[in-house]
């Protein structure tokens, strides 16, 4: 039986594992937010960076990419890769994935998705809400791996533009603030 993995951040453009198929689509009742701290690849323990996670939000959708992995060895390798890559995310959820905004039946049921919860006991790196300006300033902090952060944010923005029917208000606002902070 095939395994499906949903990516809503850097997994959109950089899976890092073998897969058989990739579908563009969305999950319902979640929104993408820059609330998760990263102390390894986007920052340090003293100056954590910010990465995206999902927050429950009735009526919202989060677009991304779902990857189908069929071969046993590819599944094992993908899980090993993701457990390291997503180690600062404390929850795995299995959600419905849609490719058609008018559909009531999911294209795939049970796509695996990594989520960073706001539970500080289970997720010590959760940073929580901040203003867009604070998030942009943090992403541009001289203490963080600037080139890596800049590339990641710009790739997330660039890879979201061509997604059909994309409601990308969150990314459009961040993009505007990011450009404002970067020019001042």
UniProtKB/TrEMBL annotation:
It comes from the Eukaryota. GO terms for biological process: glutathione catabolic process. Its EC number is 4.3.2.7. InterPro entries: ChaC (IPR006840), GGCT-like (IPR013024), GGCT-like_sf (IPR036568). Pfam families: ChaC. Keywords: Lyase. This is glutathione-specific gamma-glutamylcyclotransferase. It comes from Theobroma cacao (Cacao).
């Amino acid at each position: 039986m095939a395994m499906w993995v949903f990516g809503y951040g850097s997994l959109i453009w950089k899976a890092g594992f073998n897969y058989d198929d990739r579908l563009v689509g969305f999950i319902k009742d979640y929104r993408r937010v820059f609330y998760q701290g990263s102390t390894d690849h986007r920052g340090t323990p003293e100056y954590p960076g910010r990465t995206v996670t999902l927050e429950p939000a009735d009526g919202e959708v989060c677009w991304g990419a779902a990857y189908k992995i069929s071969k046993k060895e590819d599944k094992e390798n993908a899980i090993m890769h993701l457990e390291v890559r997503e180690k600062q995310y404390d929850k795995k959820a299995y959600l419905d994935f849609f490719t058609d905004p008018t559909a009531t039946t999911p294209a795939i049921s049970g796509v695996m998705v990594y989520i960073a919860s706001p539970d500080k006991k289970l997720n010590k790196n959760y940073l929580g809400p901040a203003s867009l300006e604070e998030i942009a300033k943090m992403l541009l902090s001289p203490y963080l791996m600037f080139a890596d952060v800049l590339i990641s944010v710009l790739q997330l923005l660039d890879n979201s533009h061509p997604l059909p029917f994309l409601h990308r208000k969150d990314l459009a606002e961040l993009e505007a603030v990011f450009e404002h902070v970067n020019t001042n």
